[in-house]
Amino acid sequence: MSLLGIDYGTKKVGLAVSDETETIAMPLAVLPNSPALLGAIGKVVAQRGIVGIVIGESKNLKWQDNPLMKRIHVFADELKKTFTVPITFEPEFFTTVAAKYGSEGKMIDASAAALILQSFLDKRHKKKELRSTN
């Protein structure tokens, strides 16, 4: 069982997956944002046993929605209609810029998706650690 991370863009969509322990996020693929996108994501969900989807939440530095966020919400609604797994938003700031420093050209968006997913995983593990120490 794994989680799927998504870095949504108007032209390209980056995908990343977690390992089965939901500890580490790894870049998976960059897909064109086209009518075939949901079908391609569906294949990943089925093949990888995806149990949840984490989408990058695009905010500006004042914590307001960027113009892209409206399209991300529409996309998330399509995912909710198509898949039965929980869908979560994870705030992202400059993930594409950060990904450019650690990945090759064609996989930048997938690396950005991995950064989004890793942020989500790290927060969740910290919450579990806090609960277990209290």
UniProtKB/TrEMBL annotation:
EC numbers, comma separated: 3.1.-.-
InterPro entries reported for this sequence: RNaseH-like_sf, YqgF, YqgF/RNaseH-like_dom, YqgF/RNaseH-like_dom_sf
Subcellular location: Cytoplasm
Principal location: cytoplasm
Biological processes, Gene Ontology terms: rRNA 5'-end processing
A cellular-component GO term for this protein: cytosol
GO molecular function: hydrolase activity, acting on ester bonds; nuclease activity
Chain ranges of the YqgF/RNase H-like domain: 1-99
Keywords (A to Z) from UniProt: Cytoplasm, Hydrolase, Nuclease, Ribosome biogenesis
Family, per entry: Belongs to the YqgF HJR family.
Protein name, entry field: Putative pre-16S rRNA nuclease
Native source species: Candidatus Kaiserbacteria bacterium RIFCSPLOWO2_01_FULL_51_21
